[in-house]
Amino acid sequence: MGAKVLIARHNADQRSNPSNPQNPWFYFVSFVPSWLNHKIMSDRPKIIIDEDWKSQVEAEKQVAEQPATSAPPAASADDPVMPPASFELLLSSLATEAMMALGQLPNPYTGHPEIRRNQAKYLIDMIDVLKEKTKGNLNPGDDQAIEDLLHQLRMAYVATAP
């Protein structure tokens, strides 16, 4: 008959100082007979190993790689349907914001043009960063469009100098 040894550390006084030599830590040592071992072991969590996990992961990858065929969300007054993302739309958005910051377009909230040179410079610099990061990856038409856009925005920026 096999017996197991069970050792537990117990602190009778939680407020005691652990560096105190009279610290009331003590150990329980007891021998557990084999007929009682199964009761102690049954309280421990069981580890279940799923042998089929690789096939489940592969199936999930295949589902994730399939293009989404769901319809775009319905439009509402608060959340209109957006056009497809494109490089031209990104440039157009940044350029529109820059023109508003240069006072070329009215602020949509106030209805009056406002000049914010720091914001305009930031947006012009962002378009320039896009030009530099996409150098060699654009077709000649897009490359020329960025050059023209930057030239026009820089001239408008200079025109707003105090």
Give a quick rundown of the structure.
The protein is 45% helix and 11% strand.
Strand order of the largest sheet: 1-2
| Helix-strand pattern | EEHHHHH
Question: How many DSSP helices?
Answer: 5
Q: Structural class of the helices, strands and pairings? A: mainly alpha
Which residue ranges are poorly predicted, with pLDDT under 50 across at least 5 consecutive positions? 3-16, 23-32
Could you characterize what this model shows?
Helices cover about 45% and strands about 10% of the residues. By secondary structure, it is mainly alpha-helical. A two-stranded antiparallel ribbon has the order 1-2. Helix 3 runs antiparallel to helix 4 and helix 3 runs parallel beside helix 5.
What are its keywords?
single chain; 162 residues; mainly alpha; two-stranded antiparallel sheet; disordered N terminus
Describe the protein's topology.
Layout: E1 3-11, E2 25-33, H1 34-41, H2 53-65, H3 87-101, H4 117-133, H5 140-159
Antiparallel strand pairs: 1-2
Helix pairs in contact: 3-4, 3-5, 4-5
